[in-house]
Amino acid sequence: MTVLNESGVPDVLPPLGAAGGLAERLPGLLVVVAGTRSEAHLLRCVPPPPAPGTFPPPRSPRVLSLVLDPEDPPEQGRVASGTVEAAAGFRGLEAVLLVAGRSARRLGVDAGLEARLAARRLELPVLAVDPDEPYPVPGVLATDLEDRALAALAGLCPEGKAGVPARREEGGAAKGGGLLASLLGRGGGEERREPLRRPVVLLGAVHSPGSGREVASELARDGVEVAGSLPPGGPWELPPLGEGTLVAALDPNLGAALEAAGRRGAGVVRTLCPIGVDGTARFIQEVADAAGSTTSELGRARAVWQELQPLRNRIRGKRIFFAGDTGLEVPLARFLADAGAVVLEVGAPRLDRRLLSEELRALGPDVDVVESPDWRGQLERIERSRPDLVVASPGLYAALVARGQLCRCSRDFLRLGVHGYGGARRVLEFLVRALDRAEALDSATNL
């Protein structure tokens, strides 16, 4: 596998696009974005992805803009006063998220101080979040606000409950350990420590709550206790987070949230993202093992692959180019390569090898990964390779369609819900429909 860093300016949706999704997932949360008119404009123009088969939802009333004038920098306490005034019109609030990025910093706003001042007056938690705070690896992802917000929310979670002893199986093997145990000196007379079962908290999937629930159901089917998700999918019920819990991310790029959970004492399970059949099987297997549940996903994965065989036959050999922008391109490319597609290139706006090490190993040696791709270079490589389908960011979509390329927008995958075994089927069906329609149109044109 070749990893090339172009140090370009990739086309990426702004992280502020996640503000609406956070407000929808957390009914007790008010999101206040302090910034210039450009940030306010972005909030209106980038709605959260809708659920499959639905229209985009209206902008949440709990996402508000606090517009700052560059010609009149705000005095200390002004942002706090604006936050308090914004919260006064809502009932039942549990917390306020004060989003203050690069432009607010340049205007002299101390977001942490403003949050503390607002919290005293509101008597509510006010969390300051900077979506533009730099990461160890340069680059921007659409999930950056989600990551920083989840890291801040982790501090509000109750302490995790301690694990409970796993239920022991009946029989001689459970009591005495069998022949192997006696050979190793672990006879029946010696007291054995029973493994603990630990509850699991799932992180992420702000824009795909349905597929996140599917993964939770698969874990529960294998005897894993899912204590909740962050963000939660319903009322304001933050999951327990502490020494007695495990945390697993549904998105491989939530590094700040995972670090925050680790600082709370939670165990972090690092494995493949639950995208695709093999990724879901390995995720469930390793999370279940860490949680103290004995299970095997091999048979389940084989059965799902068998069910998907007609779709695999249709996708096999098709050449696919990922232009990137959601941060899920590497797991999606890994799944499609496993399904038989030929992945020409994977564009990654930011490639943190520490977080994506498992994904990169599973991707295989025949796929080229371009870190921080330059959009001009991407257009040239697409023109030369002429792939069967391009997964493009919104900014490149129109330009590629105008050049005759078959494209699907990267945000369409967020709408589908890509996680879990059900997500694997939805991804393949979505791509097969696109290819079938294109071939039908070509046939009609050639008549």
From TrEMBL:
<dbReference type="GO" id="GO:0015979">
    <property type="term" value="P:photosynthesis"/>
</dbReference>
<protein>
    <recommendedName>
        <fullName>Nitrogenase/oxidoreductase component 1 domain-containing protein</fullName>
    </recommendedName>
</protein>
<keyword id="KW-0149">Chlorophyll biosynthesis</keyword>
<feature type="domain" description="Nitrogenase/oxidoreductase component 1">
    <location>
        <begin position="191"/>
        <end position="435"/>
    </location>
</feature>
<dbReference type="GO" id="GO:0015995">
    <property type="term" value="P:chlorophyll biosynthetic process"/>
</dbReference>
<dbReference type="InterPro" id="IPR050293">
    <property type="entry name" value="LIPOR_BchN/ChlN"/>
</dbReference>
<keyword id="KW-0602">Photosynthesis</keyword>
<dbReference type="InterPro" id="IPR000510">
    <property type="entry name" value="Nase/OxRdtase_comp1"/>
</dbReference>
<dbReference type="GO" id="GO:0016491">
    <property type="term" value="F:oxidoreductase activity"/>
</dbReference>
<keyword id="KW-0560">Oxidoreductase</keyword>
<dbReference type="Pfam" id="PF00148">
    <property type="entry name" value="Oxidored_nitro"/>
</dbReference>
